[in-house]
Amino acid sequence: MMPNYISQHSEQHQQLVKWRRDLHAHPETAYEEFRTADKVAEILSSLGLEVDRGLGGTGVVATLHGNQGDGPTIGLRADMDALDLDELNTFEHCSRHQGKMHACGHDGHTTMLLGAAVTLAQDPEFKGTVNFIFQPAEENEAGAKAMIADGLFERFPMSQVYGLHNWPALPAGEAAVHYGAVMAAFDTFDITVTGIGGHGAMPHQTVDPVYASSLIVSALQGIISRNLDPQKSGVISVTQIHGGHAYNVIPEQVTLKGTTRSFCPEVRDLIETRMHEVVRTIAQAQGCRADITYTRRYPATINTVDEAKHCQAVLEAMPEVQQVHINPPASMGGEDFAFMLEKLPGAYIWLGNGSADHSHNLHSPNYDFNDEVLPIGANFWVRLVQHLLAD
Checking phi first, is residue 143 left (phi over 0); if not, alpha (psi -120 to 50) or beta? Predict the structure, then answer.
């Protein structure tokens, strides 16, 4: 006997919508997902699952054993955190916490995995074990790495791990699977350029860090256009410039901040090395001093081929999924599920979330998760378990 899949507009679907909108109304950011973790743990415990809390601070792991005996153990992961962002939506379930918002759909990810846990717990017709991993702090703060450091894979040994992300650029009812790179490595940099401040009308009496900084911003783009193999991808974006406070004062110091993205380790190394050289050389040429801190944040998210093909097979067999895109262009966005894929074979898919009423991009203050997709995501997880842990 196989589990009953969740159908559109069914009672089970409406329960998922209720959970999802409750999470959306109460967003919590990195390592502060206390209410969210409480709600997740309460639902999982009510199903009779073994529930562990506290990995990575606010992480939750629930374990379900199939009723067909021993077999492989796999992990299914959803992220729980929200963003520091003011929501501009005005619907009833919009954020009740000013400055915090579920603008990336993690409320939907959590709900879909809960839906799968409910369905599988009601009828665990499989051979082996499933670990449902609810992770904190995906946005910038490496919650996956924190859970791993707290012993995720030692306490819950598993052979494979899987994740997904909603993708507004794909219509609902479509999905994407990559046989390799899915998301880019995500790094950040902080540059401080120090000169000698003075009167804006007398620049010759100063060593101008503003001018030196402007040259640095331009020169950094030359790393991508002139040092990087044109057949490989990389991004350097200066996203913040801070310096000065008056119209007629050349400041003593300017700070630059930003991010870099890459897929290949050698490209990542090249970008970091050349940034140090370019920043310090240009500053020195202008009589300034420059200090740069380059911080490696997330590695690239790289699927293993066999596990990606498992996801493809499941998606292509689902009647709710009309099209599966294979190896579309990878995203320059970052994803800390990459830390899990460094440890275990696995795959990370994109699930179409777009529609006429849900056209806003991820991280938009007008974004809202498309609730019509909730059964598709939950059913994907259920079918993946059946596919991988068939008796």
Answer: alpha
- The domain locations on the chain are 11-182+300-388, 185-298
Q: Please report, in tens digits, the pLDDT of each residue of the chain (391 residues total).
A: 456 899 999 999 999 999 999 999 999 999 999 999 999 999 999 999 999 999 999 999 999 999 999 999 999 999 999 999 999 999 999 999 999 999 999 999 999 999 999 999 999 999 999 999 999 999 999 999 999 999 999 999 999 999 999 999 999 999 999 999 999 999 999 999 999 999 999 999 999 999 999 999 999 999 999 999 999 999 999 999 999 999 999 999 999 999 999 999 999 999 999 999 999 999 999 999 999 999 999 999 999 999 999 999 999 999 999 999 999 999 999 999 999 999 999 999 999 999 888 889 999 999 999 999 999 999 999 999 999 998 6
Contact between 233 and 329 (Cβ < 8 Å): no
CATH of 185-298, one of 3.40.50.2000, 3.40.50.150, 3.30.950.10, 3.30.70.360: 3.30.70.360
Q: What is the pTM of this model?
A: 0.94
Cα angle, residue 149 at apex, residues 148 and 153 outer, rounded to 5°: 35
Nearest-angstrom CA–CA distance, 381 and 320: 13
Q: What is 11-182+300-388's CATH superfamily?
A: Zn peptidases (3.40.630.10)
CA dist list (Å): 345 to 134, 183, 187, 310: 19, 16, 23, 12
Q: Cα 307–309–313 angle (5° rounding)?
A: 120
